[in-house]
Amino acid sequence: MTNDTFTLEVPERTKARRRVGQVLFRGATLLALALVLIPAIWIVVGIIARALPHWSFSVLTQTSAHGGLANALWGSIIIMIGVAIIAGTFGLGAGIYLAEMSGSSRRAKTFDSFLRTATEVLSGVPSIVLGFVGYVALVVGLHWGYSLLPALIILSLMVVPYIAKATESSLSQVPTSYREGADALGMSTGYSLRHIILRAGLPGITTGLLVALAIAGGETAPLLYTAGWSDQMPSLALTGHQVPYLTYPVWAYYNQPNKALQNLSYDAALILLVLVVGLLVASRIIVARTQRHADVRR
Amino acid sequence: MTVLRTAAEPEQPASPGSPGGFAAVRGFLRKHETTFWRRGTLVAAIVPFVGLTFTIIVIAIKGWPAIRVNGTYFFTGSSWNPGSTYGATTTVKGVAVPQGASYGAWPLILGTIQSSVIALLIAIPISIGAALALTERLPKIVARPVGFAVELLAGIPSVLFGLWGILTVGPLLARDVYPKISSAMPNVPILNFFKGPTGQGEGLLTSGIILAIMVIPIITATTVDLFRQVPPLNQEGARALGMTDAEVTRSVTVPWVRSGIIGASILGLGRALGETIAIAMISGAILGHTAQNIYSPMTTIAATIVSQLDSSFTDATGFATATLAEAALVLAVISVVVNLLARLIVNKGNRLGVPTGK
After folding, report:
1. Are the Cβ atoms of B4 and A186 closer than 8 angstroms?
2. Backbone angles phi, psi at B90, to 5 degrees
């Protein structure tokens, strides 16, 4: 007599081994998660805890000459706006070219992939190297001195790849049917770009721009040797005037033997943190709001 | 009635009653609009290439005298001595050099490699684990804050990591953790690098740990993107066969994205190699010799450039600045090679065209 049903005999030991493997795996991933979360919370809390006990809002209105950070705050804001204008223009243009304008011939494709590689390689060049170049070529070479223009050029060069990448990848996710529809309606290139394609890709582009601004606002090394430092309010002069910025006091004052200067360093750190968190939250809100209506998902 | 307008069709007059130059210019612009967009955006797309070329040329020219004078000693030597910058100068190979100047960058190069390797050893397992937890069946209420934490870590300026590392993490580790590791390690090769004086918390291991925290978001974000592209059917099929999560991960998910993970790690390596200001604050910034053990002060190429550029101005011959340019060139070449390598690996191994950047 033969048995129709067939049962697979799994040894108890194998079962146990698999169960243990699963538990260990789950434990390991959750541990990794915790090891990412803990530093993030720790650094935020640590910076707030250092600045809060002596925090006074007068640091936002007084210049460094009078023990505040108003000059640095405004300098950073000016630098960020300048970078948004310069790097935003070139990054957006580069992203549009790479996503929309690339040719279909073999030679054009090679050329485009060459440009893409150059963009990616530039994003990997350490910021201090770019800062050094800014110092040698712009500050000294062109006699601009520590000033706004070399800082803007170098920071823009740093973040253009990010904006280009964000633009390209968000435009490449716009459905082809949008473009075909625009073409079928007889829209011109510019009109369909401005009103159809860029609009659909806007959340991704905005996020890229805000991340780029966060990078620009948080840089220290390239600014030290391009923008200089000043304890006066910044001017809008492009060359010849040093520009204060928020990361300088953090870097230069934390190990000073003067308690007031140390506190200034912690205050600057807190303002920087608020700035970065603000930019991140803003980008999240923009994405969440626009995603509700668009059928383009990131 | 014309509904469709093709590029070849001549432009219609703008409006019947508007004569003169303005309409003509508008007509011209409209006729060549596609060309203008193409050329305009092409200019922007060439900017990164121009910037990259300009960067390499400037540091190569500036560093050329130093490359000639320092020779191979730059890569093998250990003494970092600017010479008598206010005293006599000598001429070596047609280059004016302060007397007694000798620059060996071996400690910087080794420090850069050591700190980056430590950072990657810590960061890669944590990043992959976190990426798995983020993509595999985690409730939204947990996944969201963790996603934000990763984004936050990526966005926090490096000077804040430096401040936090030097004031909070370094002293804590040096007081509570390092002495225990140091005394627990057996005195055998490799592991005896962990023995010896543990210092004040400024040094190689602290730098490596802080660097790891800085590269974790890069590797995690890239790996999460990779995991999301694994076809769900394959994973569901494996689950239907009765595999546990661990087995699905090991035999389906990870093999699918293996080369991508390597690429992501190399991207993280690129960031670690070039990190400047945080390392300048945490490393102890010691010039002239390599780390004695894993706790001892060290420095990296990037940190040396930022901390020595100021004092290099006192060298009237400009040789100190030229040497820093040479160091910058070495760093730039290493980073470019590492990035190209990451790109190559990711492109070669993955035909899906996985995006690697952030």
Report:
1. yes
2. -115, 170
pTM of this structure? 0.87
pLDDT at A108: 85
**CA–CA separation, B201 and B183 (whole Å):** 16
Alpha-carbon gap, residue A109 to A104, rounded angstroms? 6
> Are the beta carbons of A128 and B302 closer than 8 angstroms?
yes
Which alpha helices (DSSP H) does A97-175 contain, by range? 106-124, 127-133, 148-171
SS3 content of chain B, % helix, strand, coil (to 5): 70, 5, 30
* Phi, psi for residue B97 in degrees, rounded to 5: -130, 135
Cα distance from B161 to chain A (closest Cα, Å)? 8
With CA atoms as reference, the chain B residue closest to A20 would be B246
What whole-number distance in Å separates Cα of residue B113 and Cα of residue A58?
A: 44
**Helix, strand, coil fractions of chain A, as percent rounded to 5:** 75, 0, 25
What are the pLDDT digits (tens) for A156-191? 999 999 999 999 988 988 888 888 888 899 888 888
* H-helix or E-strand spanning residue B80: strand B80-81
How many angstroms from the chain centroid is the CA of residue A134?
21
Q: For residues B283 and B299, is the Cβ–Cβ distance under 8 A?
A: yes
For B45, the closest of A18, A31, A97 (CB atoms) is A97
Q: How far apart are CA A298 and CA A287, in angstroms?
A: 9
Helix axes A148-171, A70-96, angle to 10 degrees: 40
Of B234, B284, B279, B266, give the one whose Cα is nearest residue B357: B266
Q: How far apart are CA A48 and CA A42, in angstroms?
A: 10
Residue B22 belongs to what H/E stretch?
helix B21-31
H/E element, B95: strand B95-98
ipTM for the whole complex: 0.89
The answer to whether the beta carbons of residues B273 and B112 sit under 8 Å apart is yes
The rounded distance, in Å, linking the Cα atoms of A219 and A276 is 12
Coil vs helix vs strand at A32: helix
* Helix/strand/coil for B102: strand
- Residue B37: list chain A partners with CB under 8 A: 96, 101, 189-190, 193
Per residue in B74-87, pLDDT (tens digit) is 898 888 888 776 77
The pLDDT score that the predictor gives to residue A293 is 55
* B95-98/B102-103 β-pairing: unpaired
The angle formed by the CA atoms of residues B156, B157 and B163, to the nearest 5 degrees, is 100
CB contact under 8 A, B148 and A29: no
B213 chain-A contacts, CB cut-off 8 A: 39, 43
Give me the pLDDT at residue A4, please. 67
pLDDT at B356: 35
For residues A212 and A123, what is the distance between their CA atoms, to the nearest angstrom? Answer: 11
- How many Å apart are CA B200 and CA B202, to the nearest integer? 6
pLDDT digits (tens, 9 = 90+) for B26-41: 787 777 888 888 888 9
CB atoms within 10 A of CB B79: 14
Q: Which of A25, A46, A120 sits opposite B343 (nearest CB)?
A: A120
Beta bridge partners of B90: B97
Contact A36, B216 (CB under 8 A): yes
Helix spans in A52-126 (H): 70-96, 106-124
Q: DSSP code of A144?
A: -
pLDDT less than 50: residues of chain B: 1-18, 350-358
Alpha carbons B256 and B39: distance in angstroms, whole number: 40
Give the rounded distance of the alpha carbon of B50 from its chain centre. 20
